[in-house]
Amino acid sequence: MSKRQKGKALGGLRDILAGCYGLAVLFPVFWVFYTSFKTNKEFVANPWALPESWQVVNYANAWVKIDFKTYALNSVFTTLVSVAIVVVLSSTVSYILVRSAAWWSEALLMLFIAGLYVPTALILPSEFTVFYKLHLWNTRPGLILLYVVFSLPYSMLIMSGFFRSMPGELEEAAAMDGSGIHNTFWKIIFPLSKNGIITIIIFNFVWIWNDYLFALTFLHDRNLMTLPVGIIALMESFKLKADWVTLFAGLNIVMIPSLLVYLCFQKYLTKGLATGSVKG
Amino acid sequence: MIGNKKSFVALYLVPTLLVYGVFCVYPCLKSLFLSLCSWSGFSSGIKFVGMENFVKLFADPVVWKALKNNLFLLIVCTIVTFALALAFAIMAAGKKSRYHQGLRVIYFIPYVMSIAIVSVLWTFIYNPSFGLVNGFLEKIGLGSLTHVWLGEAEVIMGALSVPLIWINTGFYMIMFLAAILNIPDDRYEAARIDGAGAFQQFRFVTIPGIWHEIRTSLVFFSVTALNFSFELVYVMTRGGPNRSSELLTTYLYENAFVYSDYGYASAIGVLLSGILFVMIFVIMQTMKRGYRDE
């Protein structure tokens, strides 16, 4: 076998193996999807098979019976508000710290980014006491605050990378034209950092929408719960009732929004990651 | 103009610093302090006990078991995740076909799924009676290899490492891909002119070119793996059966929120962070030199 043929055969083998891994990733996701349309009887008889007739009613059941509506509304509200606040704060603060000539600006930026290296488990007990004292435990604003604070390190890492690579002449020109800093930032700088902004929107949307641990620890009332906590809380009762398909429908309701956000914006993600975080 | 700038700083920087200080920096410091105290929650007073919690910690067999499990997950997941991610990144960097682009998009999908969903999903996949793993093994005639994956102490940590790898591979693939695409083409060209084969190009151009990103990713992975494994184990096994999948993080959570032993929980947290910082330090130091001597 010549060297070229050997290279081609190896390349083919590699493509097949890569495809197998792709299947291993995709199949469980598909499985959750099509199982959610089966009946419980079908599921127990053969967990692999496709549904014989597509039971859309499972979704109606999941939505109504287990009060998914409340969980979903909580998740949507909490996520959107948190992401909006993070985008505003992390972009402005990164901009201020990157452009400032003050001696403390670099140190502050480091302090924010150092938050990346704090294991969540370390702060949970004392965070709990802080929340309790400030009456933020089991409140929606408290949870949003927590999401904002723990989104800052990664968001600022990405945004500061962006502003560093942006030439300073733009602002100088804007300042000469008499534009104030508020105007310059929101009208010129912010739109120009689109790739970074989209990257942090995707990342923060995904992690906040998906978060289980913070919501579990810092919320108690059922009517404040978000989707991931709701679904896990319900898993136990589903096990007893052996109502698997409604549970699968519930899993899809949680899974699909973040999947859609990712699929719509995935092409920005590679670009954003390439300019931002790999420089850390 | 100056007043304008001041209002910008006051409006954004000041509140951000304030909440970050109160809800991130302060709790970290408070955990350090609490680890030296005995405190069982809000009704009782905080009592300073010095190193007592740490003495108890090192004598606690569960801590050692949990530490072993944490290290097992970290080592196994790091090696497999990084090897897969690197291989896929190199593949995707060379090919621009739809097939490879599509695979890249697919590999990332688990990273955007909730850890709660992933945990439920894999609990089903490992289910002994109708799960996919045992079903698959029986179908291909390897029925003797079936296990109660989340119920047997011998296989449970291996079983738990698979979803962790499954989640993270796509993310690090994108990281490495971005880094590889940043390597200037002329370096590869120069290597080819010197007669370097595919492997030699990998060894002498690709790896040095992305060395910095590998190092950053290793540090990042050490931290995130800690958080991911915590939630995964908490949902899938709660550290059981019989503490065979206990992690330092799940043990900490139990001590804080089940037994209200905040002092001991904080001590576990401090131990965990100590280990993490030593690890980060070692990674940064040992990988500091190496390549990239441009």
Topology (elements, then pairings):
The complex is a heterodimer of chains A (280) and B (294).
Chain A: H1 3-35, H2 40-45, H3 57-65, H4 68-99, H5 103-114, H6 120-133, H7 140-164, H8 169-176, H9 181-192, H10 194-210, H11 213-218, H12 227-241, H13 244-275
Helix pairs in contact in A: 3-13, 4-5, 4-7, 4-10, 5-7, 7-10, 8-9, 10-13, 12-13
Chain B: H1 2-34, E1 37-38, E2 47-48, H2 52-59, H3 61-94, H4 98-108, H5 115-125, H6 132-139, H7 156-181, H8 185-193, H9 198-236, H10 248-257, H11 262-286
Antiparallel strand pairs in B: 1-2
Helix pairs in contact in B: 1-11, 2-11, 3-4, 3-7, 3-9, 4-7, 5-9, 7-9, 8-9, 9-11, 10-11
Describe the structure.
The complex is a heterodimer of chains A (280) and B (294). Chain A is mainly α and 280 residues long. Chain A folds into 2 domains: 3-35; 59-279, Orthogonal Bundle (MetI-like fold), CATH 1.10.3720. Chain A is 79% helix and 0% strand. Chain A has helices spanning 3-35, 40-45, 57-65, 68-99, 103-114, 120-133, 140-164, 169-176, 181-192, 194-210, 213-218, 227-241, 244-275. The longest helix of chain A has 33 residues, at 3-35. Chain A starts with a helix and ends in a 5-residue tail after the last helix. In chain A, 41% of the residues are buried. The model of chain A has no long low-confidence stretch (mean pLDDT 85). Chain B is mostly helical and 294 residues long. Chain B has a single domain (59-286), classed as MetI-like fold (Orthogonal Bundle). Chain B is built from 11 helices and 2 strands. In chain B, strands 1-2 form a two-stranded antiparallel ribbon. In chain B, strand 1 and strand 2 form a beta hairpin. The longest helix of chain B has 39 residues, at 198-236. Chains A and B meet through helix 1, helix 4, helix 5, helix 6 and helix 7 of A and helix 1, helix 3, helix 4, helix 5 and helix 7 of B.
